[in-house]
Amino acid sequence: MRAHSSSRWAALVVTTAGIVPAVLASPGPLAASAHAASRPCPTQAYQRTSHGTLVPATLRYEVNAARRRVTVVFSFRAPDGHLAQRPVVLRLSRSGRVRLRLRVPRRRGRGIVAWTQRCRPPLAPVPNRAPPPPAPPAPGPPAGASTSGVQLGVVGGTTGLDLGALYNNDLAILNKVGASLVRIEKPITATPDELRSVVAVHAGQGKRLVLLLGYGAGGYPDPSVCANVGAVARTLAGSLAAIEIGNEDSYSYKANNANPAAYARLYDACRRQAAGTGVPILAQFDDANRGPGWWDGLFAAVPGLRADGWVVHAYQPDFAQKIQRHLDYLAGKGASAPLWLTEFGFATDDGRCLSDNYGWNKCMSYVEAAQRVREYVGTLRTRFAGQVAAATLYHAADKDPAGASSNREEFFGITKVDGSDKGPYTQAVRELIAGR
Predict the structure, then answer these.
(1) Is residue 125 part of a domain?
(2) 1, 72 in Cβ contact below 8 A?
(3) Which of 167, 370, 394, 423 fits a disulfide with 155 by CB distance 3.0 to 4.6 angstroms?
(4) pTM of whole model > 0.85?
(5) Which domain holds residue 340?
(6) Is residue 208 part of a domain?
(7) How would you write 260-271 as a 3-class SS string?
(8) CB distance 107 to 25 below 8 Å
(9) Domain count, the chain
(10) Are 347 and 412 in contact, with CB atoms under 8 Å apart?
(11) What is the structure's pLDDT at 414?
């Protein structure tokens, strides 16, 4: 992909070199808006379907001359009605040229054939923050979701605020198992510009993020930080499946955060700031297996509290009972938003006994792990269809080599630490993500 800039023209060219996001695998008509710095740009693109026919597609892009940046946003409406938006950020050199190379697998001949756009955007300095994309319509089922509507994703290991901080070759592992929904953690104070690159590198490979905005275990930030959360939601909406505020605040290891009233006020302020962006804002709702105290504190602090989704982590064998009691409490409050299981999983070093496994077999083999994950996801997709929106499996890769320790936390990976398969367990996860 190239971007050329002069005092009058900006042009983008995409060709058969395969330098577009992999989400183009879906056949059928595609639709999006065309936009450049608030002026419309005509564009023509073609996608080759599995039948060899060509169908039209469109794009929009935003020019930020002050920062010498072009953000290209690919937007496609799949046959199931789901709107996918994938931004790619290009930085202009002094000569006005930039190159971006991405390898994209072509499946049965599908993919962009030719895409050329020319328009005359205003290249005078514009505000540093690119214009926010319009809020998408109410989303349909996300790419990769099962027919029940429960999408299966993976918790990634991306850390830091730069593209170089990818834990355990994270993206390669996520691609290997076919994950299109990925949960990563960043500080709640991270600005849209600080997050843009790491979000774009995931989006460029067809992934939508559950962006966990955290603040550690030292207490809650002032609700004024929610203005930044709203800015993140507006600016990066096309690449975000959801924003999660905090992590496991009801758990005993976060004693300094054991204040449901403070959390409720923080969450409510952040949800209000992000209103109208189309990005679901998720609330920590896990009872931590300690009774209804956390729940009661939330609703007492903010009467009539509402959320776009309620986060629960369900690792134990009685996960179905845990999910049900959370749903029952919400029903009593008239809160109908679905649960998001942003963590679940199984610790396994192929039969070697570990310190614990949250009630599962501490000496779990890869074969048993494959059986358990199939049973777990099957329960979500049958018993809890329409009540659980998504579940992200913890974690992309082990943190230690096989046999290095007995700490359960090091062996929740879908793959081994080097990214190699855990035999039938990795294969089972791959098939479940694919909807099989």
Answers:
(1) no
(2) yes
(3) 394
(4) no
(5) 151-433
(6) yes
(7) HHHHHHHHHHHH
(8) yes
(9) 2
(10) yes
(11) 96
**Domain boundary, last residue among 76, 96, 119:** 119
Cβ atoms 60, 225 nearer than 8 A? no
Q: Judge whether 135 lies within some domain.
A: no
Six-digit token pair at 238?
């096309």
134-179: pLDDT as tens digits: 444 444 444 344 445 799 999 997 555 544 455 446 888 999 999 9
Decide if 93 is inside a domain.
yes
Strand ordering across the sheet containing 54-57: 2-5, 10-14, 111-119, 43-48, 54-57
Which residues, including other chains, have CB under 8 Å from residue 206's CB and lie 6 or more apart? 21, 22, 23, 86, 143, 180
> How far is Cα 246 from Cα 286, in angstroms, rounded to an integer?
12
**Could you tell me if 112 and 176 lie in one domain?**
no
> Per-residue pLDDT tens for 102-128?
333 333 444 433 333 333 333 333 334
Gap between the Cα atoms of 422 and 373, Å rounded: 13
Q: Choose among 112, 104, 106: nearest CA to 30.
A: 112
Q: How many CB atoms lie within 10 A of CB 262?
A: 17
Average per-residue pLDDT in the chain?
75
| Nearest in space to 114 (alpha carbons), one of 12, 265, 267 | 12
C-alpha distance across the termini of the chain, in Å: 35
Q: What are the DSSP calls for 366-393, one per residue?
A: HHHHHHHHHHHHHHHHHTTTTTEEEEEE
pLDDT of 352 strictly over 50: yes
